[in-house]
Design goal:
CATH class of the largest domain: Alpha Beta
CATH architecture of the largest domain: 2-Layer Sandwich
Oligomer: single chain
CATH superfamily of the largest domain: Dihydrodipicolinate Reductase, domain 2
Bound molecules: NADPH dihydro-nicotinamide-adenine-dinucleotide phosphate
Structural class: alpha/beta
Strand content: 25-35%
Largest sheet: 9 strands, mixed
Number of strands: 18
Number of helices: 14
Distance between the termini: 51 Å
Radius of gyration: 20 Å
């Protein structure tokens, strides 16, 4: 019997549970565990085949070890928060099971976005004969696979990479984030870093902007350059890159709210004393903002995420754009979540499927671009995230 343990029952956990349940030949048994068991039970109730649920505090290694020993899964899919990555990796090492996540480890007190902590597990996973797959969401995740695919099939030498993440969705709320608010706001308020001529260059958050018209009528949006974790692994694994940048769309309304929240101190991640109790303003803000998991009901529009890549092919300059568009309402009717959770949860399931079936295997810690992109690209087309390629002047790059 092949069994998977999913940890985390938020927006992404809901999609992963549904998508694994759709592939019973690979995921013969599914256990969904999280801090709040009721959330796991609510997700399980919406899935047509029975899945098991459990309560676990993923900050606590002995609790995780006890759950893994009891359930004996072949692998763990971690879709809790980035803070839990290292404890879950420790528990996987102690119990001898494979590991996958969608976001790199971050310490709670400083927004760092570095792979260093998880890459440090390389030797321990390799020695134990186990595989840890890092960042199997959309970005990071599919964007790494798109890069590997272009480097394998479309370009002989990759020079320029621009990852463009547009969420053309409208949830109808005055202000909400479309994945975990604490993680999202830490990411977008951090200083921007992009890679140029062999080094990362730091610029103020949101200081570089372009207007991007998405293909397939998704719309025209303002995109802002920001740091994103896949830039670190991609520039390491594709050393021919001269420049690598990441862009994300934000509405004027979102940015205005964020500016005000920042100005009044609500996005701080250091503790302040309130009524004698230390609280983290950003964590308090999360508690009063809409739950991203509930946005699916009202979100309309599409996401459009892809890579624009320029380099050489047969001695000639060539530019390619590989992208996916995903409809919020279609995702909601399939799995009860909006497209941001869907575009993260489907690649997590696909990464796990390739590991469970031995199509992707290895000993140690891997980023997505280190593995053969072809089976992953094929699975994207089969499991709800079809992609397309534009070339040359058809690419809408401003
Ligand atoms: P949510 O906040 O909706 O869900 C997180 C879940 O993790 C909740 O169920 C929460 O439990 C649970 N959790 C938190 N702490 C613990 C703990 N100590 N022990 C057990 N469970 C815990 O987040 P999302 O679903 O939006 O995001 C999940 C992950 O996906 C995040 O790491 C995020 O960074 C990543 N992500 C990756 C993307 C990509 O493309 N690569 C894009 C979007 C997200 P409770 O319900 O009790 O709070």
């Amino acid at each position: 019997m092949r069994k998977v343990l999913i940890i985390g029952a938020g927006g992404v956990g809901q999609v992963v549970a549904h998508k694994c349940a759709q592939v019973p030949a690979v995921f013969q048994e599914i256990v969904l565990a999280s801090r709040t068991k009721e959330k796991c039970d609510a997700i399980a109730a919406g899935i047509s085949r029975p899945i098991k649920t459990a309560q676990v505090d993923a900050d606590n290694v002995p609790e995780l070890v006890a759950l893994i020993r009891q359930e004996r899964p072949d692998m763990v899919i971690n879709v809790a928060l980035p803070y839990q990555d290292l404890t879950i990796m420790d528990a996987c090492l102690e119990t001898g099971v494979h590991y996958l996540d969608t976001a790199n480890y971050e310490p709670r007190d400083v927004a760092k976005f570095e792979y260093r902590w998880q890459w440090d597990y390389q030797e321990r996973f390799a020695k134990a004969g186990l595989m840890a797959l890092l960042g199997s969401g959309f970005d990071p995740g599919v964007t790494n696979v798109f890069t590997a695919y272009a480097a394998k099939h479309l370009l002989d030498t990759l020079h320029y990479l621009d990852i463009v993440d547009v969420n053309g969705g409208d949830h109808g709320k005055p202000f909400a984030t479309n994945f975990n608010p604490e993680i999202n706001i830490r990411e977008v308020t951090a200083p921007c870093r992009h890679y140029e001529d062999g080094a990362f260059v730091e610029t103020p958050a949101m200081s570089t902007k372009k207007t991007f018209t998405c293909p397939e009528g998704v719309g025209t949006y303002n995109i802002y350059r920001l740091y994103h974790e896949e830039l670190e692994s991609l520039t390491k694994h594709f050393p021919t890159l001269k420049r690598a940048q990441f862009w994300m769309s934000f509405s004027d309304n979102y940015l205005k709210h964020l500016e005000v929240l920042g100005n009044v101190g609500m996005t701080r991640i250091d503790p302040v004393i309130y009524n004698g109790v230390p609280i983290i303003p950003l964590q308090f803000l999360k508690a009063v903002l809409p739950d991203p998991g509930d946005l699916g009901k009202t979100t309309k529009g599409r996401t459009c995420i892809g890579n624009i890549m320029r380099g050489l092919k047969d001695g000639e300059e060539r530019t390619v754009y590989i992208y996916n568009t995903c409809d919020h309402e279609a995702c909601y009717s399939e799995v009860g979540s909006q497209a941001v959770s869907y575009t993260t949860g489907v690649p997590a399931m696909i990464g796990a499927m390739l590991m469970m079936t031995g199509v992707w295997q290895g000993k140690g810690v891997f980023n997505m671009e280190q593995l053969d992109p072809d089976p992953f690209m094929k699975a994207l087309n089969e499991h709800g995230l079809p992609w397309a390629i534009l070339e040359g002047t058809d690419i809408p790059w401003p």
